[in-house]
Write a structure and sequence with these properties.
heterodimer; A: mainly alpha; B: mainly alpha; 9 helices; elongated
Chain lengths: 158, 166
């Protein structure tokens, strides 16, 4: 089965047909997706700002990182399922949208970076990392997530 | 002059017409509005969770608030300016939109919640800022804050969907 055929099958599966028949379901799921975005924004920003030398600078990076991580996971737990449902609503339309594929690719990159390099730098004792590498990690993280959010917004544009 | 007369005049100003008819400026302003949500609402979420006693308990509440509020305010400023422009692009449509009205009411409530918190519980922050469980007043403010900001985001997202609902 080709990818497009798979997307077609998703979009016209009984569940999704039922979902699309109510006009308020798509905006409701989109709203939940936005609520997840707000939480993701907080959980990512509070740590990245700290890495850049702003915000909660009087605390160790690792403490802020440890405290923020459950909320980052919680936000992903909201964003991923709602994002998947939003995608399934109009899968065949998104198949042709560059912004959609950019979003998927950069989101995977952002997730990988967050739970590998960024996590290691955050949890490491500050004496073992230098300020420049911490700032670099924060800049990469912010750029990746901003690209995901921007591409996500562009998907919905005419 | 009634509100509607004023909004009719506002909608006829060249700026409003240009914004309304532009293809990219309006969408850019909308994008800025949504992207800044991560900054403003993100900081609000962290502060409210701290007031609920759910995160960063080792950071004194006053330290967390004073270090994060400037970022929240910067985000808020961008959201208000971009939001006003979005309103200016279609004043009569926004005014007549139920979700828009709900959003404005919720905004007033959210603002009042912050104001009351700062005038009451936060005055005595030094007494409780390291407590394992923040006082009831702080938890109520945090819980109300989270609920109201969530309501504002949902109402805002629903604004373009009124035509399908009613």
């Amino acid at each position: 089965m080709s990818l497009l055929a798979f997307f077609e099958w998703l979009q016209y599966s009984p569940l999704l047909v039922a979902m699309r028949s109510s006009p308020w379901l798509f905006p409701m799921i989109a709203s939940a997706h936005l609520l997840g975005l707000a939480m993701l924004g907080g959980a990512v920003l509070v740590v990245d700002l700290r890495l850049l030398g702003f915000g909660l600078t009087r605390r160790p990076v690792a403490e802020i990182g440890r405290e923020a991580e459950p909320w980052l996971l919680a936000s992903l737990l909201i964003m991923l399922p709602t994002g998947l449902l939003l995608f399934m609503c109009f899968a065949t339309k998104y198949y042709y949208l560059t912004t959609f594929w950019v979003k998927v690719a950069v989101a995977l990159l952002a997730l990988t970076f967050t739970f590998s390099v960024r996590r290691r730098v955050i949890m490491e004792d500050e004496g073992n990392t230098n300020a420049l590498s911490r700032k670099l990690v924060a800049s990469v993280s912010l750029s990746l997530w901003a690209t995901v959010a921007l591409a996500g917004r562009l998907i919905g544009f005419p | 002059m009634s509100i509607v007369t004023f909004l009719e005049w506002l909608a006829a100003t060249p700026g409003s017409v240009a914004l309304h008819e532009s293809r990219y400026v309006f969408l850019s302003v909308l994008t800025v509005h949504v992207m800044t949500l991560c900054v403003f609402a993100g900081m609000a979420v962290i502060i409210d969770l701290r007031l609920l006693g759910l995160t960063m308990l080792r950071v004194p509440a006053s330290e967390l608030v004073s270090r994060l509020v400037p970022w929240a305010l910067a985000g808020l400023l961008v959201m208000v300016v971009s939001g006003l422009l979005l309103f200016y692009a279609a004043p009569l449509e926004r005014y007549g939109n139920l979700f828009f009205r709900a959003k404005m009411v919720l905004l007033i409530l959210a603002g009042s919640n912050v104001w009351v918190f700062h005038k009451t519980v936060y005055r005595r922050v030094a007494e409780w800022e390291l407590d394992r469980v923040p006082p009831r007043g702080a938890r109520v403010a945090g819980g109300l804050g989270l609920t109201l900001w969530a309501g504002i985001i949902v109402a805002g997202r629903m604004i373009p969907y009124q035509q399908y609902w009613f």
